[in-house]
User: Fold these one by one.
Assistant:
Number 1:
Amino acid sequence: MVCTFCKVGPDSHDHLFFSCDFSRKIWCKLKYLVRMDCAPNDWQNLLNFMIKRPVNESIWSILQRLVLGACVYYIWQERNFQAFGSLKVVFWIDASWLYNSTIC
């Protein structure tokens, strides 16, 4: 199977999070908004990066983890809607601002 978003890469976690152009643009914009500019854009390195980060009660620590979780959840949900023919739900953000961004 191929990626439901870009139709080029494989349908895998490594590609979907965040090697695919569609998901990478979303991740790059969101990680910038929560001060995670230096976070990697590939799944395995991102997991290692997050595991090594200190968990504390600062607002940024909380926001960073919430944003990553929400990003993964909604990208996976949108992938399933497209892959399995469910009623397509409008993606959780207006993606037009992503393509006009110079981040990543």
Note: Residues 50 and 62 are 12 Å apart (CA to CA).
Number 2:
Amino acid sequence: MQAIDFPSLAGLAMRRLGWSPDIFWAATPADMRMAMGTGASQLRAALKPDELEALMRRFPDHPVDDKGPATP
């Protein structure tokens, strides 16, 4: 297992992302990858447009009935 250089990562998060120490220590490795932009391409590749549409139909932001979208 490779050692993690936490001081360098914390400095990078503070300088490049503007994170406070509390935000850095609360973040997961996945949070750090996404914030740095290294995980976005993997996320886009993992979810195809038709899969997104299916999820949006299954879990709408607002319930939809036969009369159209409900008002919040």
Note: DSSP finds five helices and two strands in the chain.
Number 3:
Amino acid sequence: MVMETPLSRSGSLKAAARAAAKLAALSAATAPATPVIAPSQVASSALETITEIPWTRIDLDLYEVARGGYIVGYVEVVGAVFVALGGPRYDRAVEVSQHLTFHAAVDVLVRRGA
């Protein structure tokens, strides 16, 4: 099973701005008693969550996982299992866990790198 990676580049700023506006409108409509957050804060937090792609395909069955520009680990595809390896260097990475879905393995490494 091979997953193709999207290009490692920033997403559309217009799409991020639309998402931030929707998020601001939704939070204002559901909880009017909450304090108002500046749109620039909402836009910057939405940009961080929308534009970052935490993984890059580096081989047929190997993916590199990064957080904040730093490599936190690798996901290796072994049959139907995705093995999460923690560490900045592949040759010294340690197995963290095994998962049945790719995104669960990536999530473990991203959370571990926090």
Note: The chain has three helices and five strands.
Number 4:
Amino acid sequence: MIRTRGKTQELNMRKVWLALLIGLVLCVMTSGMAWGEDSLAGDDHPLDEPLEKCLEGEGATSTQATVQCYMSATEVWDAALNDAYKSLREQLDSESAQDLKEVQQKWMAYRDADIRLAAGLIDGTIRQVLAAQAEYERTRERALTLESYLGALQDSK
């Protein structure tokens, strides 16, 4: 009986440590210090202003409101991503355009898997926020990457 109680206490301590770790991860993620964010992403971008305002206002009222803020911001960045992709593809030779298409398809598979991972980190309604935030961050990062490729291509001409 004592041995079982010890295992139960050990399991409870592990849950406490896991909760603390997840809390720390959420603090880092929501403070704008997203993991994997590089110099391309930068801190400020005009397309991020509506998200910041939403999260400071109505997005702070509920989980669903926060999710909606991220979903709206993702739509904006997805449009920027698609514009950059189309512009880049139009300027590439056929072989490079095919490479871009293949890479983009692989990126979409990565994005989807990464969102599933983020959503699976924790149970409860916060999982919706994590999934929405992950989709926003991945879409934003990819849009900025494609825009940087487009800028480099235009600079080389």
Note: Helices lie at 2-30, 49-56, 63-91, 94-120, 126-155.
